[in-house]
Design goal:
By secondary structure, the chain is an all-alpha fold. Helix content is 67%, strand content 0%. α5 crosses α11, α12 packs across α13 and α13 packs across α14. It is globular, with a radius of gyration of 25 Å.
Amino acid sequence: MTIFWEGVLVIGICYAAVFALGIWSSCQMEGHSELEMMNAGKSLGVIVGTITLVGTWVGGGYITGVSERIYEGGLINVQVPVGYSVAFLIGAAFFVRPMRERDYVTLIDLFQELYGMRYGAVLVFPVLMAEFFWAASVLNSLGTTLEVILHIDPLYAIMISSFFAGLYTIIGGLVSVSYTDIAQLAFIILGLVLAAPFVAHSPLVDTSRKSDFMGHIETGHIGTYIDDYITLFLGGIPLQSYFQRVFSIKNTELAQRMSVWSVIGCGLIAIPSTLMGYYALKTDWEKVEGYGKQVPEEDYVLVLPLVLRYLTPKWVGVFGMGAVSGAVMASADSALLASSSMLTRNVYKHCIRVEAKDFEVVLVLRITIAIVTCLATMIALCLTTVYHLAFLSTDLVFVMIFPQLTICLYFADHTNVYGSFFAYLYGFIMRLTAGEPHFGIPCLIKYPLFDYERHTQGFPYRTTIMLTSAALFFLVSMLAEYLFVTKGIINPKFDFLRAFPEIWPIEPMSAESRVKLRVPSQYPDGNYPAGQRPSKFRLILEH
């Protein structure tokens, strides 16, 4: 097929405009410090914050995934818009204020403050994987869209898009990401709203054609349907992309308002994608010239691109494609920055180079963004599904990080690092053994209502794993406290996670040792009041 060069030109202009805006916004920064790069110097207003949060969540996987699920299973199976909207409300009500009051820079700072730098860095893994999957999801969606509409090899589309998104993120950090999100969100609204009337009035659309737009849920899948919603409600919270916006706003009240207003934005933008899925159902694709067949299951992911390609004039399809490309870059740059921020601050600065100066941290951050961009691009080129990949981005953090986040925020005084470690390990093992058919991971543990024909779980297993992980957190914490402190059954030298410094032998310590062991500087000899654990102090973060 011949490449649609006029469309390529229009998309090129859009990319150039976004890139120029990213460079311009980076020039407006007062400095390129760690805080400026990661959190925009905590200077964003509620309007810009809302736009960048909506732009982050309304990615290519979001707008193409909604149409995909409408065509595949009907409206009742479109869970992401509702799920993420509720997640924003829960975040505003229970998580924004306590996290803001601690003056963190990343989500992982909470765990490193409580349980030490090295162990806290271990909790980066699932959040990092979630951001990787999210970035790969949106890049993948752009590749498939450009292939259908402009007849461009998805390899080039994905690589060019990731290159531009990574480059302006390297230069300006969150400031560039936030202001380019404004332009990208405008592309999304303009493209989809412009295309919707043309699709509705296309002669190929027959609204009287029978179709199951509302969809249905099979009885055996009710458990997993509920499980999916709970995963979205709670799994959408413990993500660095979310908290990076929360930490970048001027004050706590505005941050909470931003989270609530984003619910409206995400809901409104889902409407055009829903309409595209509806009109796709009302189209007899066998009569569509140039396509001539009913959409096979493996092409459900292409429903939105197909609608833009065949049910609208060429120039309208190009603007619609601009909406997808805008959504992709808005989400991809956010995920790239979020991943790099955690690796740079929570791994490099806090564990490898504690003495690193601001200039060095910023340099490492930029290098890390480049590396993360390459890795996310490779994932996007190797994997095919969009909706399930986007959904999986909240899966690991739901079972592994959400219990940790909630307990560390509200019940830290009743837990310790041993509870955290075993709960974390338990969540990881149990999630893997439950299987993941879209990635070829077999179901080693078959929960009740298991579907042996499809080899899928029918029980709300993720919610079960999350709840039992939280219970294990408390139980192991209490057991460790009992064995080490209350009864002294286990020798203090076996406290390998350093959870109970009050039972360690008292000896003079150097300043360097105090930092490593997290002993408060006001008690240099280690003889601090009983019951006060050094892990509750902020010595390392302030150091």
